[in-house]
Amino acid sequence: MEILQSLEELEWIPRPKLLALRRLGIETAEDLFTHYPRRYEDRHQFPEFPREESDKPICLCGEVTKTQLRRFGGWKKIFEATIQEPNANALSQPLVCRWFNLHYVQKMIATGQQLVVFGKPRLRGKRICMEHPEFEVIENDEEMSIHFRRITPVYPATEGLSQRLLRSIIHRLLSELSDEPLETLAPAGLVPGERRQAIRTIHFPESWEARDTAREHLVLSEFFAMQLLIASRRAESSARPGVAHCGRGELLEKFLRALPFEMTAAQTKVIAEIRRNLAEKQPMNRLLQGDVGSGKTVVAIAAILLVVEAGFQAAFMAPTQILAEQHYAVLRRWLEPLGVRLSIRTAARQEESFLPLVAGDENPNVIIGTHALLYDNVSFSNLGLVVIDEQHKFGVAQRAQLTGREPAPDVLVMTATPIPRTLTMTIYGDLDVSIIDEMPRNRGKIVTAARDESKLGEVLGFLRKQLEAGRQAYIIYPLIDESEKLDVKAAAAEFELWRERLHPFRCELLHGRIPAPEKQEIMERFRRGETKALISTTVIEVGVDVPNAAVMLIENAERFGLAQLHQLRGRIGRGEHKSYCILLTVDQSAETAAKLAVLEKTINGFEVAEADWNLRGPGDLLGTAQSGLPALKIGNLIRDAHLMRQARTAAMSIFDTDPCLELPENQRFRHLIVEQQGRIFSHVS
Q1: Is there a single domain that holds both residue 117 and residue 59?
Q2: Distance CA 485, CA 157 (A)
Q3: Residue pLDDT, tens place only, 93-144
Q4: Helices marked H in 451-509 — which ranges?
Q5: Distance CA 466, CA 113 (A)
Q6: Cis peptide bond prior to 283, omega within 30° of 0
């Protein structure tokens, strides 16, 4: 049997089950063997039945002594199965398992059966219950040793595919497959010897220690394959032909002397890192991380001035019209006095001097724009630097349109969304990383408070006092219009109400459907202080800079993610005044309370990112579709961060040994992989 053999060729697998397997993405033997268990149950010995409820799920085994179907509310049904633990005594209390409106369950469970259940015990009156527990009927047949009296794997499953059947199929395939094909489950050229044992053990471990060793081996292998791809991308990018783009620094010195504030040590350090990159022929690919308000734009201007002084153009790409317009205004204010020519290109705005971009005296030195800079009718005469702000809002292919030219420009991508280090090693592993971990000294303090919606009256009184003191406010909603499906407030629907509440202070409405020119006029009135309160959606999430705006009220805060709430909060606290962010919520759940408590506790974006990471898990944060990396099947970026670091070090050392290595077809490349793999696996094997 071959490892890539289709499961359709195996006649002993029931045909209807092939469709269920396909829903899980399983079509070959390899797919099945890398469909790893999501948890395990120790079925050697079970604990006594609980007498109290618990938030921790437990695994129990007992005999079904009674079943009952009860109706309530007319058509609704509850199926109950009462199970008694083996060798029960007079003090033993039975466990009642309950399923609501799951009609198929009553067809599967009958009195006299032995049942394994997994769930949280809850006290319901005087009874201990499990509601909607996972369950499995234990049958005394020749396959009992696969499912019982062992450490038993529990898999991600789907409708029509029971744990028992899935476990049986994997067990039979492993018994029919020789060791040699199992070795091919390693990425090309990797891991002789130990792979086959790890695959067998991860599914059917003899002990918890053996399971842990097998898992660590497989995680390392998965991470190493990912880091090899990242390292090869990095090497390929570095090998592209480039030129040095660094001037002598006279323009930069003039700019720095004119600043009305002192640069932070972190900004100075990052500018030095970028300056070294620009002076090299090897193309720069650098990620700049910095919290909202940390001064990333100043660093980007420094890079632009070094490139312009050397005789090259710079492109500055922003994700939205508002942010592009703001960058254009800021850069004009700082750069035009230095003799630097600027132009802007967005979908809605195009300056006459911008088209076409050809060599000549009128050719702009710096072009600011949105994704419109990617259009075919925009050409650059001498592009030396691409700055991409809020880069996570751009796809890899979009960035490649700007950067994939020869000679290659230097690339600086910036984000105000701090990224946990382990995630940086994956999504942005092909980039050098700079971090601004220090805030300017002249920023006002931000106080954040979560409040129940019932406190709106008190909040309104506080908001009016702030406006009377001369401050301005943002009032943020998750939606533009009301929705019949969601019980959530909306900006447009609440706007008139806010005009009444805050009279005579001027209020304006801002959202994504307002035409770009009108949107810009609204923002200009708010910047000038004519408008005192801006009722808005998250269109102001990035880039809006109004130092006098010192209050932010976020309605239905439970509807936003932690990172987005932190981004929104970053619009205040940009001046000298003490600022206040009020998070209104109707959700009293523990999850929402934990999320909002993080924001009350800290204004440090890196701490917020780590908390978000721990609350949500990697999930969408990994963004494998956008980054082009393989999905992780067993590795966990939080739990296994130390293994990712090992894998990265090993993969990078291969290319450090010989930067001109080709991809795996090269025999020397394969030899180095095996050699390095042996080192990182030595402690596991």
Answers
A1: yes
A2: 30
A3: 899 999 998 878 888 899 999 999 999 999 988 899 999 999 999 887 777 8
A4: 456-468, 491-502
A5: 68
A6: no
**CA 171 vs CA 111, 137, 152: distances in Å:** 29, 18, 11
User: Is residue 132 in some structural domain?
Assistant: yes
Taking a C-beta distance cutoff of 8 angstroms, is the pair 60, 48 a contact? Answer: no
Q: Which two tokens stand for residue 418?
A: 């701090």
Six token digits for residue 667 = 């025999």
Q: Do both 520 and 481 map to the same domain?
A: yes
Task: Note whether 255 and 392 are same-domain residues.
Answer: yes
Nearest to 558 by CA among 674, 453, 448: 453
Residue 402: which CATH number?
3.40.50.300
Distance CA 581, CA 553 (A): 6
With b for 16 or more beta-carbon neighbours within 10 A and e for fewer, the 509-528 pattern comes to: bbbeebebeebbebbeebbe
Cα-only R_g, the chain: 30
pTM: 0.70
Are 655 and 187 a contacting pair, CB within 8 Å?
no
Domain count, the chain: 3
Give the CA diameter of the chain.
97
Q: Which of 105, 139, 173 is the last residue of a domain?
A: 139
Kindly report, residue by residue over 472-510, the tens digit of the pLDDT. Answer: 999 998 877 656 555 567 788 889 899 999 999 999 998
Task: Check: CB of residue 507 under 8 Å from CB of residue 499.
Answer: yes
* 427 and 450 both lie in a single domain: no
Q: Are 652 and 231 in contact (CB under 8 A)?
A: yes
In three-state secondary structure terms, 426 is helix
Q: CB under 8 Å to 644, separation ≥6 — which residues? A: 223, 227, 422, 425, 426, 635, 637
Q: Residues with Cβ < 8 Å from 461, sequence gap 6 or more?
A: none
388, 489: one domain:
no
Find out whether 578 and 447 touch, Cβ atoms under 8 Å: yes
Residue 131: strand, helix, or coil: strand
Distance (Å) of CA 149 to CA 83, 183, 436: 19, 29, 55
Whether the link from the prior residue into 407 is cis, omega within 30° of 0, is yes
Contact criterion met (CB below 8 Å) for 324 and 344: yes
Residue 436: strand pairing partners? 290
Q: Are residues 390 and 512 in the same domain?
A: no
User: Which runs of E-coded beta strand occur in 356-503?
Assistant: 366-369, 383-389, 410-415, 432-436, 446-452, 472-476
Q: Could you tell me whether strands 134-138 and 114-119 are parallel, antiparallel, or unpaired per DSSP bridges?
A: antiparallel
Q: Write out pLDDT tens, residues 283-335.
A: 898 989 888 778 899 999 999 999 999 999 999 988 877 788 888 988 998 99
Q: Could you tell me which residues are beta bridge partners of residue 289?
A: 415, 435
Q: Give the pair of three-digit tokens for residue 501.
A: 């509440």
Please check whether residue 226 is in contact with residue 647, taking contact to mean a CB–CB distance below 8 angstroms. yes
Containing domain of residue 368, as a range?
A: 250-436
